[in-house]
Amino acid sequence: MFTELNSILNATPDSFTQGEFILVSDRQSDASFLIHHFLSFYLRARCKVCFLGLVQSFSHYSAISQRLGVSLTQAREKGQLIFLEGLKESLSILIPQETTTGSQAMDFLRDPTVGLQRLYEFVRSSVSSDGGGEEGVEEWGPPVLLVDDVSVLLSLGVSAGAALDFSHYCRATVCSQLQGNIVMLVRCHGEEAEDDGSDEGSEWLLKGLTHQCSLTLHVQGLPTGYCRDIHGQVEVCWRRRRGDGQHTQKKLFQYKVHDKGASFFAPGTSSAVL
Amino acid sequence: MLSELLQGTDTGAVLIIQDSCSYSGQHLLKSFISAALNKLHFHSAYTDPLGWTNRSAFTVHQFCVEELTHLLKQTSHPKPVTLVIDSLSWILRHMSPPAVCKSLQQLKKGGAVRAVIGLLHADMHQRGTVGSVCHLATSVITVAPGTKGDEAVAKITKRSKLGKVTQDEEIFSIKGDFSVTVVSKTSHAGRRQTEPEEQQMDPTANLTFNIRLSDTEREAKEKLALPFVFSKEKKTALLQSGPGSGRILYEPDANDDYDQEDPDDDLDV
């Protein structure tokens, strides 16, 4: 959890806006440090987290979260964290064995044209709390869905339209119905092309998700080139009206990733410069 | 013009709000909804538009005139209603543009719906699709972010029934209760651009010294002969040396006879 980012977004683990769809995007950069931030933030806020880890293994996130002070293995054991290990599950689908049952979530690998309905059903069953009031089951806060990342689905053969439908359904269930939050990571490579919308690639997916979301964090390298002390810039854009009456819609920050966190500062105020 | 459109649309009108990633048109759409509230009924196709959970009230594939009229008749409202579509882009992603255009055109003519207001994300579709849908509309409002924080620019094109097209550009802002205040009207975008240029063009104003010429000074300036201009009088004066001017007599000396190609020419060997 990065404390400076919390103050920028005006959120603490005790009080944050519910029903938000946060879109983290990057272009020729790596915004996955923000996913680690949101994972540790929502686990600290005692929310029920459903994490679709499609690009890295569980141990990767676990090791980084330990540095941020959160234990993923403990959270998974307690039932607070439901982790879909995309890499492992995809192996069981591509190399089917008799003993593997597994969830049907990664079924789209068999036939990408079918769409992501099964993945959505996995998400829905994870975030909806099982009723009952059993003894010893802790009450968690609002559900949170984290996806890392959506653009890898495009390389697996899923169409961008299907990915947008999936995010729409997740938003309808998690944000509107259950008043939870969603954080999705989209990665674009290459320049911002002025394609006509005919090429449904990651740029088009980014535009579609931007229209659906309420807060975007766009990570890019510095426009002036490589710098050892500043790793890039983050543009934060609020798309919905905020309750506190502020009207600032866009803010730009520069950031530096450390071993145990990241620091954010206004452009030109890096500690290396001042 | 924006306030006129907000107050009431004529029968058979189709209004399209075009937006892009940099500014969302949803706030303006909500303003239209709140302005038209007495003639509105809400049908939710949000939770299950594709029928994935089998609990949908209305799926995207039901967007055709028959189904819509059936749905609207269920509300048992005496007056024809205003149909607000949020968003048309969603429908265009799942149904072919010609089918959507056909439905819109039939709705425009039919009696069940008084007016149609739709939100379209212009950067999500090809220019041809956007153009075809906007061509059907009687009014198109394109919203873009403005220069100041909460202001936005709206470019409005309105087609009247007689075929007259009026265009307007206004700066507006939306307050917390979704009421729209038009901040200013700019009838030509170009006029705003020439004004700062005109202000830059007069650096001679407000100087502490005088750089203007009076008439006698200007005459004297024009009469002045410049020193290196080669006029006819100067030419003749230079060529014919006057009396008493120095003359230069030159007799070639042996030392001056230096041949560049043979530097040892002067050696007396």
Automatic annotation (TrEMBL), chain A:
Question: What UniProt keywords are attached to this protein's entry?
Answer: Cytoplasm, Nucleus, tRNA processing
Recorded metabolic or biological pathway in which this protein acts: tRNA modification; 5-methoxycarbonylmethyl-2-thiouridine-tRNA biosynthesis
User: Where does the record place it?
Assistant: Cytoplasm; Nucleus
Alphabetized CDD domains for the sequence: Elp6
Which cellular component appears as one GO term in the record?
A: nucleus
Q: Which GO terms of type biological process are on file?
A: tRNA wobble uridine modification
What is one Pfam family matched by this protein? ELP6
InterPro entries from the UniProt entry: ELP6, P-loop_NTPase
According to the lineage, what is the superkingdom? Eukaryota
Coarse class of the protein's main subcellular location: cytoplasm
Family stated for the protein in its record: Belongs to the ELP6 family.
UniProt protein name: Elongator complex protein 6
Q: Which organism is it from?
A: Astatotilapia calliptera (Eastern happy)
From TrEMBL, chain B:
A biological process (GO) annotation for this entry? tRNA wobble uridine modification
Where, per UniProt, does this protein localize? Answer: Cytoplasm; Nucleus
Q: Which InterPro entries match?
A: Elp5, P-loop_NTPase
Q: In which pathway does it act?
A: tRNA modification; 5-methoxycarbonylmethyl-2-thiouridine-tRNA biosynthesis
Which key words tag this protein in UniProt? Cytoplasm, Nucleus, tRNA processing
Protein origin, superkingdom: Eukaryota
Question: What protein does this entry describe?
Answer: Elongator complex protein 5
Q: Which GO terms describe its molecular function?
A: tRNA binding
Determine if Nucleotide-binding is one of this entry's keywords.
no
Gene Ontology cellular component? cytosol; elongator holoenzyme complex; nucleus
- Cite the residue spans of the region called Disordered: 238-269
Compositional bias segments (type: Acidic residues)? 253-269
One Pfam family name is: Elong_Iki1
Family affiliation: Belongs to the ELP5 family.
